[in-house]
Amino acid sequence: MATTEEELFASVDALLEEEPQLPPPAERARLREAAGITQARLAVALKTSTQTVKNYENGRSEPKSPRLEAYQRLLNGWAAKYPAHAASAAAPAAQPEAVPQTFTGPAAPETSAVVEAPAAPERSAGPATSRRPASQKAAKPAVDPRFPHGPLAVLDGDGCAYGTDGIVLDCPATTIPELVEWTLKESGIGAPKLNRYGKDSDPLVVLTAAAAVKLGLPEHLEGHEQRRSLRLPADHPVVKQVAKAKWQLTQRGFGPWARIYRKAQGRERQCVQLAILSWDALDARSWPGVADMEPADIARVLGVYAQRVITPRGSTAVSGLELMTALRPPTRAVREEATGNWVSGHNPGSLGTEPMNPAPPEATPEHPVVVNSGWKGGFLNEEAYQWVRPVNLLTDEECTLPYAVGLDLNTAFLAAAARLAVGLSAPDHFHNPKFNPKIPGSWLVDLSHIELDPRLPSPFTPDGTRPTGPAWYQTHTVAYAQELGYNVAPIEAYLRRETGAYLDPWHDRLKNAYVDTLADLGVTKDLTDTEFLAAMERYKQTDPALAAVLAAIKATVKGGVGKLRERPQGKNYKDGDRWPALERPTWRPDIRAAVISKARVNMHRKLTNMAKMTGLFPLAVLSDCVVYPSPGDSPLAFLPYAASGKPQPGGFRLGPTPGLAKLEGVQSMLWAVDLMEQGLNPARHIKGGDAVFDEGE
Q1: Is-contact 272 184, C-beta < 8 A?
Q2: CA-to-CA distance for 669 and 395, rounded, in angstroms?
């Protein structure tokens, strides 16, 4: 029977509807190498990890949509520019499934609203050097059709709003209310929720100084208050414009990070986040160099952070706390058995919607729980190490070593958050309880009888001194005393019956963000220790934009943990009054104490193992940085290695993974001894005196 035209067309249409076909893995690698592009650089362009690109090129995995279409399009362009030689291009007859060297596939859909940068990896891999992308090309397919232009935009004074992936939007707004309307109705920016029970991220618009002035804002905020406390006065024309247009500001007012909203109508949120660069919205400690970049570069930095962490909602500390809630929403939809209706109910594993009072020893001295009860029983003192070994405990051999080498643990407090059981319910009070290392809480116990090597800091106190009597400790600290072989007999305890690994998704997302960003900078898990140290030395010069993202991720970890115990701010505060942070379910000093306790115990365990394996003792420890005397100017001179060349387990190991170490600084040993004689911590000077935890906004 003859084939009809309709049947042929149907067969061809079926082929057109199939997924794009990629060339064989070996050909993918050849095309990339012919273009002179590294796997790390290609990974940046495809918004994935270097290891994933390696898997594409060795046939272990295949890309999924929308990365599939982008990768196919890139290979198609390279195949046209770098065709294989005729002899090798001809596919053997026995392999009819081989894909031709020049192949076609569906192009990304066009959008008329944007001007976009070239899709070539040269644009995506390095920092932008011009204010506008060089050419006009089609936008990449959006993962979420509601937000085709990414999570945020950086608005400049000429009305150009620079988005992620080189997108440039035209923004006609001349007032803040007009900007809010444009953002919500026309911009196409925003980000989908991170958890099925959560909420979409509100769009973020970052204003340059020129854009701020154009919209009627002062270029700089002036005042005697701290930067984070500065706000526009209530009678400022812009604040009046916002109110007249029936928009509202949060209690934080119109400051460096302003949220403008209307009450939600049904499920539709109406909220826009603004960040004003010239008001120091991007703190240089957390976002080094970003505020001075061109708008397109700022959009790239914040866009990568938004993709891997969360759309910024304020300082990195605020974003760290918001990420916890976004990944563990307090409520979910539940069906009422009586009516069959769906209502909002508690989401198991979350902290719920209501704030929870801490146990008195977990609170701060000014907390209402302490002031109103007259509590005099002492407080938890679970803080990071700030310890210096007494000079009289240095040996002559140590003093003759030429170097003091600082080792910094990668995001040590993030590593401590992994699989960390914390309390989810209110604390209950117990007298003379039997210690249970699986129950999170606070224990009053006497650990002063425990005698350890004085050349190491005590694991039970932040300053490393031996306890002098009963004190309050978090579960991990008491469990470590038991691990060391000592008897523990708690006198009192405040324990929580409901527990869970609340921080696990937070840890996983930030760990992946940290490791993937380091990989994009050329610091990967497969490097030797020598290669790792060399890569860490040059990564900031490799791509300053991604280096800034890495710094922001690290600040998000420490700031998020610090915000769990945010102290009152403002000169008018009186002890015993409640302050705004107490109204958050995430004001949880016990969770902060659990993270820090576990991190400090982990540090002491490594210090002890290092002493056993090498006979070396630290000179000083500050937070997650430890300083050792060394015969050479590299940690390779003293870290323990097996005969096979592999690092010995249990001690400090080099690597990009959270919890592993990197070189933080090298100084003269005489310099370190001189600081110690003055009572100063060498680690503080090696690390530049960084704050351990940011508890502010």
Answers
A1: yes
A2: 13
Residues in the chain: 697
CA distance 321 to 324: 5
- 529 touches 636 (CB < 8 A): yes
Run means of pLDDT, 10 residues per run, the chain, 697 residues: 61 56 87 86 81 78 81 88 60 37 34 37 35 37 77 96 91 96 94 94 97 95 65 94 95 93 79 96 95 95 97 96 97 87 92 96 97 95 96 95 95 96 96 96 97 96 96 98 95 96 97 96 94 94 95 96 92 91 97 98 96 96 96 94 86 93 94 94 81 50
Start-end of H helices in 525-631 = 529-542, 544-563, 589-614
Name residue 152's amino acid. L
Indicate the helix (H) or strand (E) that contains 268.
strand 268-276
Rounded to 10 deg, the angle between the 475-483 and 589-614 helix axes is 30
Q: Output the pTM of the full model.
A: 0.79
- Rounded to the nearest angstrom, the gap between the alpha carbon of residue 490 and the centroid of all alpha carbons in its chain is 37
**Residue 279, both tokens:** 């008001």
Q: d(Cα 161, Cα 299) in Å, to the nearest integer?
A: 9
Evaluate whether 330 touches 354 at the Cβ level (below 8 Å): no
Distance, CA of 61 to CA of 281 (rounded, Å): 41
Q: Is 508 exposed, middle or buried (0-12, 13-18, 19+ CB in 10 A)?
A: middle
